[in-house]
Amino acid sequence: MTTFEWAPYLPQGYYIYLALMGLFALGLVVFRRMRDFFWRAAFFFVLIGVLLNPVILNEIRQGLPDKFIIVLDDSPSQKLGNRDKVAEEALQYVEAALKREKNIEPVIIRSSSADGGNGESTNLFTLLRNNMASIPMAQVAGTVFITDGEVHDVPKDLGALARLGPFHAVLTGSKKEFDRKVTIVAAPKYGVLNENITVRVKLEEFGRGGSSAPSTVTVKQDGQTEQVSSLIPGEEREFTFGITHPGQNIFEFVIPVEEGELSSGNNNAPVIVNGIRDRLRVLLVSGSPHMGERAWRNLLKSDPAIDLVHFTILRSPESMDVTPQNQLSLIVFPVEELFQKKIKDFDLIIFDRYQAYNMVMQPSYFDNIANYIRGGGAFLMALGTAEAKQSGITGSLSAALDSQLPLLSTGPENIARLPFRPALTTLGAKHPVTADLMRQFKERKWGQWYAQAQAVLQRSTPLLTGIDGAPLLVLDKVGEGRVAVLASDNVWLWGKGLSGQSGPYTDLLRNVAHWLMKEPELEDDFIKAEARGNTIIVSQRDLSTEEVKVMMTEPSGKQALVPMADREPGWIKATVKAADNGIYSFDNGVKKAFVVVGTARNEEFADVHTTEEKLKPVVDATQGGIVWFQENRDFDLRDVQTTTHIMGGDDWVGLKRNKAFTIDNIESLSLLPNALSLLIILLGIVFMWWRESGGKKQG
Q1: Higher model confidence: residue 180 or residue 664?
Q2: Which CATH superfamily is domain 179-276 in?
Q3: Segments of the chain assigned to CATH 3.40.50.880
Q4: Which pLDDT score is estimated for 644?
Q5: Backbone angles phi, psi at 436, to 5 degrees
Q6: Pairing mode of beta strands 167-171, 626-628
């Protein structure tokens, strides 16, 4: 390309001074009416022109091809109705059409990496933005999305997309397709045991304007049909259910698949509601005040789901005190009220450092506690390590209660005093109560305890051991109930972190209490499943070294045994790839776990019908076009001028030509070489001298 330019010898400021001086000189000539004004002005302008140095520049340019960006949607929803095959046909058609165009190259981007390939959503604009770093903006001739239109990251600010325009959409679906979907409008995540919850459900229909014909809805709870109802498209209805058991309660809403329906995967809407207890009532009975009492109290009071009733025996009947009864502020320990009339109202009873004081609790009350345990109650005995100084204190509570305890104290006078660190047993490393403490056990040493009550192990296996391997923490199941014995009251030392030696006292005490109250996640046979995209991770509590298999039931009803082989402290796991969307159940023979894959979890299958509505704002903002490929398989690709407003239609897409280039070299040709410039100046001076000389002679 050839252009004319100036290459002045002097800086710009000098030319301004020269112009001012020249104008002043010419003005003086005019004012004094001197002759040869024309020649003087001509010489001045010739001088200025020579100093400006006119040149001709010739740029040697290399043309660059335009880039036409093609984003191919190969997300999971594209596999419905053979859209994936239609998309490949559209891609091949566009590539073939571009080959017939001059100086243009396709840039193909596939969407399989838009969200990490997990099938959760279709994020084509995110993918486009991540790939634009290597594409010069000056070469972009346009962008086309080959998709079903279900794009979930359409930007609100369309101005930033103008440089990538015109945007076009080639839709792979058909205008005649339709689909129906059951949508959960509102559902709680948790429900109180033995109380009702409400789930609001809506039937949606896409692709045929919505029909008024009602559809049958089958409602299931934990796999069993509860009721059969009907819904009209667009209608919302509330269903009421009772939470019958703790843990997962699963509800399903199923509509039949109509002939020609695009997808059956979203005809089933599952809801998982975790059943929880309303309030847990705990009775804490402490002996003489000590630091461990506060640890128990703070732990139980910090749990908003626990109602704590706490009594501390500050003064036994055998205490010698001359203070009159009417001047004492202490209340009488209500043993009859607690251990006879309302004992069944408590979910857990804790005796913390309690000793058998005569006349405080009669043996019949301990018999009531024993009956309470066998009937499904929970009891925890935390033995004290203070020496007994009163003859009325004994190590035994009652024969009936002693028979329920796995660890029996040999008496308050038998206290071992020696620094020791609680240690996990082989069972403790696997048991749900203490297995999760294994991580902290490996990271650092637990702090020391300094005293332990000597006790005889009657049955069960300890989870923690103390001095010389003596049992420190023992759990056991008795009848329908559960019991635990902790043979020391030094657990509070971990909370203080003395000398930097802390320990997981909060986790330990909380897990013990929750296991006694039959928390589902701390059960020996607890099983759970969680979905990450189309990958399911199944986990089960592990207390043995034997091979474990669980029965998996797929949404279609097909069953298969899944071997569990991946072991870690307290857990055994397996990873399963889900082939279909829907509800998967896992049964270990005692408990079941459910997990929802796809349908109710992600945007990808929330709406699967082909639509132009989501991309239309982007297309309109850049004057692009939307083509339904199955109706226009021979649509045109046209070159358009950048000044043209319309860049596409329903049967053609436009290519913006940029004429981008790189400059390989620049050739410069001066119109007034230095020698010629000097000659012109000298001739001008001589001519002006001649004119001046001739004028004097004539005068």
Answers
A1: 180
A2: Immunoglobulins (2.60.40.10)
A3: 280-521
A4: 60
A5: -70, -15
A6: parallel
